[in-house]
Design goal:
- This protein folds into two domains: about 70 residues; about 260 residues, 3-Layer(aba) Sandwich (Aspartate Aminotransferase, domain 2).
- It starts with a helix and ends in a 6-residue tail after the last helix.
- The chain is globular.
- The strands form two sheets. Strands 1-7-6-5-4-2-3 form a seven-stranded mixed sheet, sandwiched between helices. A four-stranded antiparallel sheet has the order 8-9-11-10.
- The longest helix has about 35 residues.
- Helices cover about 40% and strands about 10% of the residues.
- It is of the alpha/beta class and about 450 residues long.
- The chain binds pyridoxal-5'-phosphate (PLP).
- The site of pyridoxal-5'-phosphate has 14 residues, from helix 6.
Amino acid sequence: MNDLLVNAAERAGHYLETIGERGVAPTANALADLDRFNEPLQDRPCDPQTVLATLDEIGSPATMGVAGPRFFGFVIGGSLPVALAANWLAGAWDQNAGLYATSPVAARLEEVALGWLLEALGLPPESGAGFVTGATMANFTALAAARHAILQKVGWDVEANGLFGAPLITVIVGEEAHTTLFKALGMLGLGRNRVVKVPVDSQGRMLAEKIPAISGPTIICVQGGNVNTGAFDPVEQICEKAHAAGAWVHVDGAFGLWAAVSPGRAHLVAGVEKADSWATDAHKWLNVPYDSGLAFCRDREALRSAMSVSAAYLPEGQRREPSNFTPELSRRARGVEVWAVLRALGREGLAELIERNCQAATRFAVGLKEAGYEILNEVVLNQVLVKFGDAETTLRVIKVIQEDGTCWAGGTVWQGHTAMRISVSSWATTESDVECSLEAILKIASMLKQPLV
Ligand SMILES: *Cc1c(COP(=O)(O)O)cnc(C)c1O
């Protein structure tokens, strides 16, 4: 057994040590090689060392270099070495983190990490939280608590009776809300389309003055960090208006919420602690492995009521029971990695990670602008939107950048403009990674410049 695990660690170490030398996207050959996985299920067992070797030989070259320093797609971040190491150890522990009884260590680490997270993010210390798979499920979980609380206020028990015959709920979102927020609303029976959409400004920020008059059970979904621009809805203003009318304010802060830990960026989330619930990802900017999201809720009991396994709302025992705060019962101990990163970085290390990524984004924007390309967003955080000409040219540039392999960024459409989106969210990205990526991007863009007519 030990040989097998040491072999896995050596292969993983080699993979990570050489990831900066290969192209970020897999080559066509590596992708074609994936066909070798297509073999019939064998009758006879196979030696685990051979299984691992096959996985490494065929699988590793076909990975996207997300763990490397020059992947700038989708705001998805890498994994800090300490997080990966904690993940391996926790994997060996094979704990079922659903119950205190099945894993006292996982339950205690979640409690400790939760306290640290609330402090670092500046959220109310009394908040409850669930350790879930990602921001989609964090939105789902927090909005389930919201649904519980606002219906309870009008005398309706939604966990017991569902939404059949329930008082109507108004859901208000910004026009630029993330697509997964609508999915969460759909899963909760609140409807993907049955929402009031509030117009936004040029950065995708909700126009607070355009929020309609609020009456009856209402949830307002605010965004902290637009996936294209990085911009924040005016959360303080929205909270004031919402709370005056008894509405619940939920914040989708999948990556943007982490701005709170950096003194230079915290102003972007000013007032965020006035909301009622928050969703964020740990696998994005906290740089832990997939999958890891967090759902926070000021009203701990609302979250517990929505997520308890037992409908009888048993009084809580001495210990926080993890499964009372998440949709899942059995699950892996993802709080271990969150704890490990916070313990390793501390407040200063965390702030430095966020700030360094934001400065890299600014450097990209400055370099691209100096070369004459249009930056579509105000670069306030870690997101940069750049246009290389018309849509066709921009798409061509993106395709060649991806094929070139020095770095990887994806395309997006921002308010009618086709753009390339650069997102800097990995601990591994250094200044020299930014410079060599910028150089590659500029070289390709100038090579493909539209001929002047
Ligand atoms: C990434 C993201 C999500 C979805 O997060 P997952 O972890 O992929 O489920 C939701 N909202 C925003 C703003 C995001 O950036």
